[in-house]
């Protein structure tokens, strides 16, 4: 007996699975879109979603992630999860937050300049209005509260400057846990100072950067290369100094070439470096110039640019680049007589340089004859030239990373005393920790960061000298007088020769 049409067996419907699959796909696509959109709006210390500084343009950064999804994952993981995935390194038991009671060493003499650099705000203090105006000139903002570091990003910086500068601050917090005061600071990480004294006299703006001069209020801060500069194959400072000093001892002074040596990149918008190329004649001027090609150096593994192999000359030349140059500390480290060409800028430690004590001043005017005069003087006074070179090396030896961290500590501490408000991270700021920077770093960057990792110090920071504006003024005048004396000596020699 047949079944009626009503009782025929129905085939299972495929509509529901199709709808479910479509819904799941839509939700996944929506989530991926939202994640990608969120990541595309997240600014990072590596430079994601940030434009170059408009006051110093450079090519936009490229990143190694192979897909948008990989980039989005990395941005979100490193920005929001890395600092909370492990042990909080800033959580230090209270009993470990102070150093044992012991007398600390006196800071190097150039630390006194901390008071000089902060003097523009000694009477007025620093208000939120100061920072609001400073932000117009800043690449990023650092806020430290209760031992945690927050960063508000405005522009990216060339290469890995931002990452390594912030790494240095994070290491300072690890080195002196519980001691770094709450603070709110604006940073620029490009070369030239921008807060002109004349333009901002009515309201000096506090802006930290790597160099300054007497025409600007910018506050000098240790540059990124103290923790390494992977783009030029430079390791953290303590390692580089040790190797350079060892390299300087391979050849005795008398066997080193009695010429002035410079190796670098002249194509950086530096008139003095361009002019220096005209002095490249060992017989006429006693000068040897080598052009640095960083792309070629990277290709051959940096074998020709090892700084420890460049100490075979009795004289080494320092010429500023677009502004000051990180090369100064490496040149002084050789123990050769440093011939410093009339610098327009100074970094935090170069105020410890005294002409004819730890370097020889060279006038930018009449450059080639000025270099020849320096070489001729040194060749006629070899013991004095050697002693001055050694004093320059000694200055760099006092500039260990211990002292770099001490300088940072005292500068931040003295600056924080001038703030007339309680630092609070802005809503747009992100918390950063060592793990988040390691997360963003590529292979070479990570190697330098890990090599420069510190442990809590067993000793307190060195003791900062009190402010003494009269002493600073005296040092400035003394330095100018010695430089003039050297220039007069050169002119007198030229006059005698012409007669």
TrEMBL record:
Keyword RNA-binding included in the entry's annotation: no
Domain of life assignment: Eukaryota
Record bears the keyword Transferase: yes
InterPro entries registered for this protein in UniProt: CAP10 (IPR006598), O-Glucosyltr/Glycosyltrsf_90 (IPR051091)
One Pfam family of this chain: Glyco_transf_90
Molecular-function annotations in GO: transferase activity
Keywords, alphabetical: Transferase
Residues covered by the Glycosyl transferase CAP10 domain: 179-422
Family to which the UniProt record says this protein belongs: Belongs to the glycosyltransferase 90 family.
Protein's UniProt name: Glycosyl transferase CAP10 domain-containing protein
């Amino acid at each position: 007996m047949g079944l009626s049409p009503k009782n025929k067996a129905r085939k299972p419907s495929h509509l529901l699975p199709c709808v479910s699959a479509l819904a799941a796909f839509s939700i996944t696509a929506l989530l991926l879109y939202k994640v990608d959109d969120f990541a595309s709006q997240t600014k990072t210390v590596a430079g994601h979603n940030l434009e170059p500084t408009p006051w110093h343009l450079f090519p936009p950064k490229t990143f190694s992630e192979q897909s948008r999804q990989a980039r989005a994952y990395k941005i979100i993981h490193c920005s929001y999860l890395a600092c909370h995935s492990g042990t909080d390194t800033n959580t230090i038991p209270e009993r470990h937050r102070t150093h044992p009671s012991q007398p600390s060493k006196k800071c190097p003499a150039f630390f006194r300049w901390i008071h000089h650099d902060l003097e523009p705000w000694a009477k007025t203090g620093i208000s939120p209005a100061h920072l609001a105006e400073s932000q117009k000139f800043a690449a990023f903002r650092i806020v430290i509260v209760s031992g945690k570091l927050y960063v508000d990003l405005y522009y990216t910086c060339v290469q890995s400057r931002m990452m390594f500068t912030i790494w240095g601050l994070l290491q300072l917090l690890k080195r002196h846990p519980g001691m770094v005061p709450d603070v709110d600071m604006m940073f620029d990480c490009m070369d030239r100072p921008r807060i002109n004294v004349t333009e901002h006299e009515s309201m000096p703006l506090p802006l930290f950067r790597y160099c300054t001069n007497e025409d600007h209020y910018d506050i000098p801060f240790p540059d990124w290369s103290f923790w390494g500069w992977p783009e030029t194959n430079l390791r953290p400072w303590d390692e580089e100094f040790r190797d350079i000093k060892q390299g300087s001892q391979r050849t005795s002074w008398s066997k080193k070439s009695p010429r002035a040596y410079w190796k670098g990149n002249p194509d950086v918008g530096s008139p003095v470096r361009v002019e220096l190329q005209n002095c490249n004649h060992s017989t006429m001027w006693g000068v040897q110039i080598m052009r640095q090609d960083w792309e070629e150096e990277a290709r051959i593994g940096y074998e020709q640019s090892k700084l420890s192999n460049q100490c075979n000359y009795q004289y080494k030349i320092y010429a500023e680049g677009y502004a000051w140059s990180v090369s100064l500390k490496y040149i002084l480290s050789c123990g050769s007589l440093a011939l410093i060409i009339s610098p327009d800028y100074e970094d935090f430690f170069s105020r410890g340089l005294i002409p004819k004590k730890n370097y020889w001043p060279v006038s930018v005017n009449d450059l080639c004859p000025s270099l020849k005069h320096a070489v001729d003087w040194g060749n006629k006074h070899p013991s004095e030239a050697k002693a001055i070179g050694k004093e320059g090396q000694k200055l760099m030896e006092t500039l260990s990373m211990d002292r770099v961290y001490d300088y940072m500590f005292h500068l931040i501490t003295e600056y924080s005393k001038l703030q007339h408000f309680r630092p609070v991270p802005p809503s747009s700021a992100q918390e950063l920790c060592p793990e988040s920077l390691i997360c963003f770093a590529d292979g070479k960057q990570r190697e330098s960061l890990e090599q420069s990792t510190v442990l809590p110090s067993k000793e307190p920071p060195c003791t900062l000298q009190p402010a003494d504006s009269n002493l600073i003024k005296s040092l400035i005048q003394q330095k100018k007088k010695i430089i003039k004396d050297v220039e007069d000596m050169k002119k007198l020699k030229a006059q005698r020769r012409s007669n």
